[in-house]
Design a protein that fits this description.
15 strands, Aspartate Aminotransferase, domain 1, 2 domains, 4-stranded antiparallel beta sheet, globular
């Protein structure tokens, strides 16, 4: 078991001697790579790089073995019933688009409705806008109150005409977890399919798709220490079997004739072309690394940092927090505004002190408009961040208003 206070030493980026110092608080956008992931990537690239499922030579079979071992690791990580229910994609965005095109557009029609929340990332919102437009289905929203909690009266929008309920387990803006079990139960009670966006949950909390009983689950590797360009779509076999392929090409076929084609079995039916084997290898290595630390230690560490952030930010009268002030309701994400200072100016000034945060609409413009915060600043922590870094941010923050000529 790896001790949480030793984790930072495993990340080469933080040994580079940046000037000014580097304080990386943009983990909800993408995370850094531990040496264990980099070593796994190098091992694959130098000893097993080939094109999987194509060829009988050593490197082709080694690449196939590495790719399918990564699939088994991911399947075990999320508690899938079998590895064939795990589809590798480029990211959570592509996974959601696959579901929307291959399931949503083929299973909905006028008179049906889709229920999502106002807090969704564009990847889980624009996709359903298009499904609604193409099928004639209605798109409905569950809203939040001033504290970022969902309005339970809106849950009644899930009715007998609902065919899809799609939502993020944890909001990438509010950092708050939705009532997952309640929404899944309501959806299944009316025969609706649940699409669960785990991009912000899989890196921070344990997930078991069978216990949740979600129908689809998606996440991205780059938000949990793996390389960019690898994502996951989990789907129940019964649903995946009936869906059309999203992309067409090599490896996803069974037989191709001049006028017709039959498709490969799961999971290969949805993985056309040469896959991102090294990305899958990096994701498997990241999962092994996180397991070595343990979810209990990860969650306790992030909770400590989040608690300190919320307490410190609330001490400044010119700071407005978005969502709940209760650290028990936050999962590694704290979003705020500074009175009279544009979020991009906040981020630029903090960057001059070596502090990297996110500014903008965070790919959630409807939520920003609803909260009257079209742009905001987001601090997102992860396993390698430290209490000292939180203190540094809080100490530097008054300089933002000072440099803008404000008191």
């Amino acid at each position: 078991m790896k001790l949480i206070h030793t984790v930072r030493d495993d990340f080469p980026l933080f040994r580079q001697g940046f000037s000014p110092r580097l304080v990386y608080f943009d983990n909800a956008a993408t995370t850094q790579h531990p040496q264990a992931v980099l070593d796994a990537v190098r091992q694959y690239e130098t000893k097993a790089n080939g094109n999987p499922h194509r060829g009988a030579h050593y490197l082709a079979t080694a690449a196939s073995a590495a790719y399918e071992e990564a699939r088994r690791t991911v399947s075990d990580f999320i508690g899938a019933k079998e590895p064939a229910e795990v589809i590798f994609t480029r990211n959570a965005t592509e996974s959601l688009n696959l579901i929307a095109r291959s399931y949503g557009e083929t299973h909905l029609s006028a008179g049906d409705n889709i229920v999502i929340t106002i807090a969704e990332h564009h990847a889980n919102l624009v996709t359903w806008q298009r499904v609604a437009a193409r099928t004639g289905a209605e798109l409905r929203y569950i809203y939040v109150n001033a504290d970022g909690r969902f309005v339970e009266d809106d849950f009644a929008k899930i009715d007998r005409h609902t065919k899809i309920v799609a939502f993020a387990e944890i909001s990438n803006v509010l950092g708050m977890k939705v009532p997952v079990r309640q929404l899944i139960d309501l959806a299944h009670a009316v025969g609706a399919v649940v699409v669960l966006d785990g991009a912000q949950s899989a890196p921070h909390i344990p997930v078991n798709v069978q216990e949740l009983d979600c129908d689809f689950f998606v996440f991205s590797g780059h938000k949990m220490l793996a390389l960019q360009g690898i994502g996951v779509l989990y789907g129940k076999r019964s649903l995946l079997e009936e869906m059309e392929p999203f992309n067409l090409g090599g490896d996803m076929i069974e037989y191709v004739r001049e006028q017709e084609t039959t498709f490969n079995v799961l999971p290969f039916k949805f993985e056309a072309g040469t896959p991102n084997v090294v990305g899958a290898v990096s994701l498997a290595a990241a999962i092994r690394y996180l397991r070595e630390i343990g979810w209990e230690a990860i969650m306790a560490h992030e909770s400590e940092l989040t608690r300190a952030l919320l307490s410190g930010l609330q001490s400044y009268p010119y700071v407005r927090l978005l969502g709940s002030f209760d650290p028990a309701e936050k999962y590694g994400v704290v979003t705020f505004l500074i009175d009279e200072v544009h979020p991009h100016d906040v981020a630029t000034i903090l960057d001059s002190y070596g502090i990297a945060i996110r500014s903008g609409h965070h790919c959630a413009q409807p939520l920003g408009a609803y909260l009257q915060a079209p742009a905001s600043n987001r601090v997102s922590v992860y396993i390698y961040n430290t209490p000292e870094e939180v203190d540094y941010l809080l100490n530097v923050l008054p300089q933002v208003r000072k440099q803008m000529g404000l008191r």
